[in-house]
Amino acid sequence: MAVLSAGGRTIYDNRAYDWITPASVQKLIVAAVALDQLGPEYRFHTILASQHALDGAGTIDGNLWLVGSGDPSFRSTDLAGGVGVLARAGLRRVGGRAAVDADAMHGPELNPHWESSDEGEDYAAPISAVSIDGDTVEFDVEGTSPGELADVRIDPPSDAVQISGHIRTTGADADADVSIAPQPEPNTFVVSGSIAAGDLQKYWMPIKGVPQYAAAVFERVLDDRGISTGAPAAVERAPLDTIVLWDHRSAPLRALEAHMLFLSDNHYAEQLLRAVGRERTGIATDQSGIATELRFLSERGIPVPGLRLSDGSGLAPDNRVAAITLARVLSDAESRGGDRSLYLLLPLGGRQGTLKEYDFTTALGRVRAKSGHITGVASLAGYVNTLHHGRVVFAFSINGSPGDPDAAIVRAIDRIVDL
Question: How many domains is the chain built from?
Fold first, then answer.
């Protein structure tokens, strides 16, 4: 535990220099580093490009490329909007293929330090320069008539996802009991179970082979707009002489980080980690991102006793971060202020995001913080506006508690308000 003044002076220290598993409070590090390296107004670009302009017959000679830079917020609806722009401009045929260029990021899709039990969970989505819908596919399961098969649909539709099995429709008063099981073959799922008549449930499953999946979605979006292609979709690097036909800009970085910190979005954190690595080293990998984080912490004079980073999100159980490191990251951001501040990017305790259900009393409305949870870990780090001595910084992390660590942390924060 560490409690500091907003300027970084230690108020309370209980094993603050001991390193333990931090869980999602680790996202504070990549958030601070991204603001510093990329800048608060940084935007990711996802483009549609070709080597030839649209001719008078509505044709583009050669390929139409979808080129990504790692935008974690890019959606299939954005892609459909971009294709719609080209369709309204008169595009009717692509002479070559729908091609996806995901060369802006490198490394394994899934971090090898994550628990194998996390595979197949939507919070452990893969990482890719072309990221669509958080690299998950949505399953919409809707009950029909009792005794009949339920409707199972995927969004966005594509030929890349294969479904077998069935789900039965039960009476209207029954609870949903739906299973969607990923199979060894990439993007193949077996569905089973039951759902009540008239009920609609949505599930999100991570996909594998993101560029290949994106190519299939891209091809389907073109087809839905009546745009034909001369060859099957593929993953292929775009040449340097392409012409940008459509450029999708993400929201500014501060808005992306607010989403990441409010909802503890692991996918955003992992995409940002590779983005900061690319900005500093020219190579977008986990290793380059972590090296950039370590360099930032050193340059800012932030202590890093026992620090071990394996990812950007904190999902890996072998991460090790001391409370003093997290607290000093927060106090450093507060001292820099302005668009480098993290304060307003964090949810309000007891009211917003992952802190909405925290049962604060005196601290209600006076604390902004990032929570963290994986098996055996409960953490909270952020800012408290005290009654008598202004804003203070805190970082609490508890590993292996036999009791209720969240309740203990909440009581501690409530007491800090009385300072």
Answer: 3
